[in-house]
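Subgroup meeting minutes
Present: P.N., E.W., G.H.
Scribe: E.W.

1. P.N. recapped why we're keeping a running log of single-chain structure predictions: easier to compare across weeks, and new members can see raw inputs and outputs side by side.
2. G.H. added today's entry (697 aa).
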Amino acid sequence: MRILNVNIGNFASKSNITAMKKTFLLISILYSVPVYAQIGSSDTISVQPLNEVIVKGEKPQVSGEDGIMVVDLPSIVKDKPVTNILEALGYIPGVTNNNGMIWLTGASNVTIILNGELTNMPLQNLYQLLYATPVDRLKNVEIMYSAPAKYHVNGAVINIVLKTPTPLDGLQGQVRAGYNQAHYGSYGGGLAATYSVKDWTFDLNYGLSRTKSWSREETWSNHLHNGKRIMIEDDMRHIGQNWSNTIFTTATWKTLKLTYNGQITSDSKSWGLSSGTLGNFTNAYNMLSPIGYHNIALRYTAPIGMTVGGDYTRYSENRSQSLFKDTDYLLGSENRQEINRWHTYVDQQHQLGKWQLNYGTEYQHSKDHSSQHYYPYDNPDFDDILNEDVAGLYVGTQRSFDVGLSFNISAKGEYYHNKYQHNWNFIPQFGATYYKTQKSIFQLNFNTRRIYPSYWELHGGTSHINDYSTIIGNPKLQPYIQYDAQFNYILKQNYVATLYFQYGDKATVQLPYQSPDALNLIFQTINMNYERVVGLNLYAPFGVGYIWNAIATANVMNRRAKADHFHDINFDNSKWIFYGALNNSFKFTQNCPVSLTVDFYYISPSLQGIAEMSGLWRVDAGVKWQFGKKRYCELDLKADDIFNKWSPTMTIHNTGQDYRMKVRDMTQNLKLTFIWRFNGFKPKDNGIDTSRFGTGK
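Output recorded in log:
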């Protein structure tokens, strides 16, 4: 289990960071204008043709209304070496994509939805779906720092709007094959297709991948035990492999939509190889059966403005662990998790003159049956069923005024219950946009949300890394309330400045802790007093015609984390952090089939709870080549972290705690992707929650 999160403050309260990759687009429109002028006497007409007129305009990347930022992402990534929507999201103003993890600047967390609908997929499955969805399917992307309650999402949202096929388009699609070389090689492929006939529309995305991963962590734990300092060194290598099958398919008849999405992960194995002061350990994890995720959803929109929907989710996992010291067997365990979850909702919308009124209700019930059994049997076991109920009511409104002001506001009441706790939550949301002209747009957003722990952590299970390090669950872990506010200024629909504030009341963190009672390093998620971030993010595109287009990003933030009871110690850490990026794309001629990119990223030393994080930098480069008839074929070559410098060092030196970890992940990799599009795969225009599943490691 990875226990190190690189947190840059702002971008999110979770791990990992990268820079935004965006581009600046200039378009030229060519008009031939024959103009006839009458000159001379009234009975003499002569014709005077004028020369060709070339009008050059700057296509806006960003627009805003009702507190929503609309981004023309297809134009931004046109010449970038990206083939799918997941990669393209990293080019949105304010969005970072680090190794497939998506964060939004100024938001503590972000939920991705498709066409305004929540997918209810675990995060890993959603990312797999986006990776399998071609970038050509994009129509635009909507950024909602404060999503209205009608979307059934609390907090920030990235709404991916896809093109809608029509019967005139016929069968369209693309086939993708790719290879990724890091420490080990991984490969995969996918098929995406759409078809429409009369009142029916069908959509299919399928991906198959074989992944093998590698990472390394060196640790130095200067442990105070019985009044003496004992240095425990460890060199841990992690190796993992699996086959992953992902499918997402929809069938739509008029306003009735049936969706299935699922993922089956097979041949999943991983090993933790540890060598150091205490000896040599091998931790072997095996999936005893394929990991299965299945979700089926039905949605109907009535002519009266009512939407009724529901979905059912089933998740299953059965994993074994065997811990050896040299060749001696120490212990083993079997972890099981089966989750059944039902969700239903009813939404109603009315147009009352210039006002829009929204209200609705939703209910979710989940049954989590999890167990952990150890061999030998002197270790603590559990076999537990956890029922969880969440019910909510909301009301909201939105309005646009002729003076350039538009806003949306909603309030949601939510009831949460499980056997450990129950509480009522009030969740307000507000978003507004104001402008006199589109050259200068102001946006203000505010929202709150309650964040719940994973199912597995609430059971209090234990996992052993080796004789020294242990991961422990926490049944006393409380949900925490997150407050986020953002103020955006959009200049000339291209330049964006975001001033943001985040406050997590009883925010959670998982970091190593050296026990004073035993020679034991504990990893356990606990609640802090709070975590607060305030910052300013600047996004500016520039360039020279079609030859060179660039994006400069700068984010300055202050992060503070405070805990009165981090186990039996306390801390209060604060630090100013800087994040910068420069993304460049080059073309030799305007219609050149080859484009190049070179990107630079840097983050200054930062913090995560009680831990200090080292500074990081990286350089990426890529080339995109379109060829064949109508350029239906595409070849992309991308080199990430060329100098392999995007790996942090974590240091804890506080109140007797003395610990250091150096991460040596193989973020350096080379990707080669081939794409073949059939029938153009450009449908005509007609005018997705983080996962709480998994037994952990």
